[in-house]
Amino acid sequence: MYKKHLINLSCFLLISITFTTFQSNATQDQNMDSDTEKQVKKPTKHTQKHVAPSPVPEHWSQEIHNTIANSVYQSATWFDSFFTDIDSQQIEPKATAKIRFGWIPKARDWAEFDSRFRLKVKLPHFKDRMSLILSDEDDMADNQLPLDGTSSRPEINEESFAAALRFVVNKKTDSLLDTRIGISGGDIFAKVRQRQLYTYKEKYGFKLEPSIFYYLDDGLGAKLFLEYNYQYNENSQFRINYSIRGSESFSGIRWKHGFYNLKQIDSTTASVFGLQVEGERNGENGFFTEKYTLSYRYRFNALQKWLFFEIEPFLEFPKGENYTTTPGIALRIEGFFSKK
Fold first, then answer.
1. For residue 103, what is the enclosing H or E element?
2. Which of 39, 44, 107, 320 has minimal CB crowding within 10 Å?
3. Are 300 and 57 in contact (CB under 8 A)?
């Protein structure tokens, strides 16, 4: 009997151990499945190293632009600092520069070269009403550019440098009154200019621009500039201008006519077909025509947005050559530099 009970107890223990082992294995398998699921849902993320892109070197022409623009800006800041206290808030000036180089070979003169520069600095401490202008062009002809091509020349001296302080008295959309005082061609001058614009139906435009100036050596003078514009279509315009100028420095009145057809070929290309006639009247030699000029200017932007190129074939008929036909061509490169 005792042996029978011992056998039954052994069987019961064996069954209990087997059941417990099975339950433990099931729980372990469930935990393993749960861990596996967690690993699938949340895989280990490896942090990726950020690789900085290698800098692209600037084009050599852009480096030249940055060098000149920075130099112009620093000069403007230096000049503007004279008109403010050091402790006051610094306002950044606006400076722009234009530099042009050209070769103008023509019959009987293959060695004519043209170089021009113009620097304009707006002085913010005068609320942008005053600016400094430095140029090696006669400032009296600034409103003719850029239409005047081969015929553009200083009206007072063949080689003149102009430096002037310009003060805007009144400026509106259709009118301007400004004054200038400075030096041009080694002569101190002062100038007052009034500009008035008239438009009609957005197709017709008229400009009236009288000015009075006084040079210390050349005396009193005056100039009248008239211009008419007709907008033929979206990309084409016809323009006629006329100017007369008198001064105590010479006898008579110098005049100039211009007839132009301007075309915008595309967003980076334009052309100007022009006929210019200039001369003198009421002087020692009476009325005479100094020169006729027939030209076609092709202007385009390339390489950089601030760089322009011009090709201008032309025919001149100068009085000094008995109005003999003088063919030629002008090749120019022009850069605009600014930093605001």
1. strand 94-103
2. 44
3. no
What is the 3 state secondary structure string of 52-67?
CCCCCCCCHHHHHHHH
Q: How far apart are CA 126 and CA 83, in angstroms?
A: 9
User: Would you give the end-to-end CA distance of the chain in angstroms?
Assistant: 113
CA-based R_g, the chain, Å? 40
Say how far apart CA 51 and CA 184 lie, in whole Å.
Answer: 58
Give the CATH number of domain 62-339; options: 1.10.1240.10, 2.40.160.40, 3.40.1190.20, 1.25.40.10: 2.40.160.40
Question: Residue 41: in which H helix or E strand, if any?
Answer: helix 2-41
User: Coil, helix or strand for 203?
Assistant: coil
- Phi and psi of 273, rounded to 5°? -100, 125
What's the pLDDT tens digit per position in 24-83?
A: 444 444 444 444 444 444 455 455 555 555 555 555 555 655 565 555 555 555 445 544
Q: Is 159 left (phi over 0), alpha (psi -120 to 50) or beta?
A: beta
**Domain boundaries defined on the chain:** 62-339
23 in helix, strand or coil?
helix
CA 134 to chain centre: 17
d(CA 225, CA 170): 19
Instruction: Give the CB-side neighbour count of residue 339, counting CA atoms within 13 A.
Output: 14
Q: From start to end of 185-268, where are the E strands?
A: 187-200, 204-215, 219-233, 236-247, 253-266
| DSSP per position, 251-306 | SSEEEEEEEEEEEEEETTEEEEEEEEEEEEEEETTEEEEEEEEEEEEEEEE-SSTT
Over residues 229-249, mean pLDDT:
93
Specify whether the CB–CB gap between 192 and 212 falls below 8 A.
yes
pTM here is 0.70
Share of the chain above pLDDT 90, in %: 38
Residues 6+ apart with CB under 8 A from 269: 298, 299, 300, 301
